[in-house]
Amino acid sequence: MGCAQTGTGKTAAFAIPILQKLYNQKTEDKAPRQIKALILTPTRELAIQINESFEAYGKHTGLNHLVIFGGVSQQAQTNGLRRGVDILIATPGRLLDLMQQRFVSLQHLQFFVLDEADRMLDMGFIHDVKKIITKLPAKRQTLFFSATMPTEIAKLSQSILSNPVKVEVTPVSSTAEKVEQAVYFVEKDDKKHLLIHLLKDKNIASALVFTRTKHGADKVAKELNKANVKTDAIHGNKSQNARQRALTNFKNGQIRVLVATDIAARGIDVEDLSHVINFELPNIPETYVHRIGRTGRAGASGIALSFCDREEKVFLRDIHKLTAQAIPVVDEHPYKMLQPSYEETKANHQKTSSNARPFAPRRSMSQRRWSQ
Predict the structure, then answer these.
(1) pTM
(2) Sheet architecture: strand order including 207-210
(3) Tell me: the pLDDT tens digits for 294-353?
(4) 88 pairs with which residues across the strands?
């Protein structure tokens, strides 16, 4: 069982040993290849990323690997399965579909990897995962990876692992050591102006911008393109082809900014990503750790900037509590959040007190004597 923050090399930790073991088992037998390793992951982007890692690490091994996921035609995937596969990387929904159609047999499986288990829970896939586990051979090696360990995930790990060795690289609450963090207090309506202002700095070579909603991602991308900042957005409403095209363009430097929701960004691994910008703070503090882990990967340096409006201060407090550190505040910027004036404070106080029973001060003894 591996527990480590994002960007610490979890994919290599399971991919390289699996490739080595399967390579050592290779024979000249021409019999059809059987699936011997299954890597289950929550999102299409992460599945593609893991498949690319197997491609790089196993280039000269002669082992076949295939990635399957939903949102696209299954024909190319079923054709690949018919040709024979040693290593299968899959998302839960598409895997179950193809298992039910008898395109996938797992009876020869030796290695099962459950990656990003906590995100499986967040995205509602945990029941699909449990169904898949019931179809696996009892005799197998199981590798279980999760950046965080909520109660339900801990229970799942106990049910599928037998005397596991636990490797915890860094605490769940830790943030990447080489990521420089800063927060800007800004009114909600001024966030887009602040973002455009910051992107005038050419030192921001590439930026992954996070929003909480799909609509918010599209809106931010539209504003940036209007300001002549080449931008695209990825989220669940985009087709797989559109998401992959946007990600490829971002990696190639054809667009400078990629705006993403948390689920869509899971698995994004962009080499030398200079900045992560939290346009909106996440309401789950662990998500902050996942977000900023997109930069500063594998020991590299990076910068994470966060915008915080009045309503998000409670989210910032929760992030400080989880990470046990206060994020430095940038005071000098043109869209600094204004503090309410004395008149506004007084008006708000009167407004909140208007329905309360008027307060009448008690009269002193001398006042009572004079009134008699």
Answers:
(1) 0.65
(2) 179-185, 302-308, 275-278, 207-210, 257-260, 231-234
(3) 887 656 678 999 999 999 999 999 999 988 889 999 999 999 987 654 444 444 444 434
(4) 38, 66
How many angstroms from the chain centroid is the CA of residue 326?
A: 22
Q: Beta strand pairing status for 179-185 and 207-210?
A: unpaired
Integer Cα distance of 106 and 19 in angstroms = 18
Sequence-distant (≥ 6) Cβ neighbours of residue 20 within 8 angstroms: none
Tokens linked to 364: 């002193």
**Token pair in block for residue 95:** 């895997």
Q: How far apart are CA 25 and CA 365, in angstroms?
A: 99
Residue-by-residue DSSP string for 69-101: -SSS-SHHHHHHHHH--SEEEE-HHHHHHHHHT
Look at the block and give the residue holding tokens 């087709």. Answer: 239
Instruction: State which H helix or E strand residue 114 sits in.
Output: strand 111-114
Q: What's the CATH number for 179-323?
A: 3.40.50.300
The domain covering 2-22+32-168 belongs, at the CATH homologous superfamily level, to P-loop containing nucleotide triphosphate hydrolases (3.40.50.300)
Tokens 């992460």 belong to which residue? Answer: 46
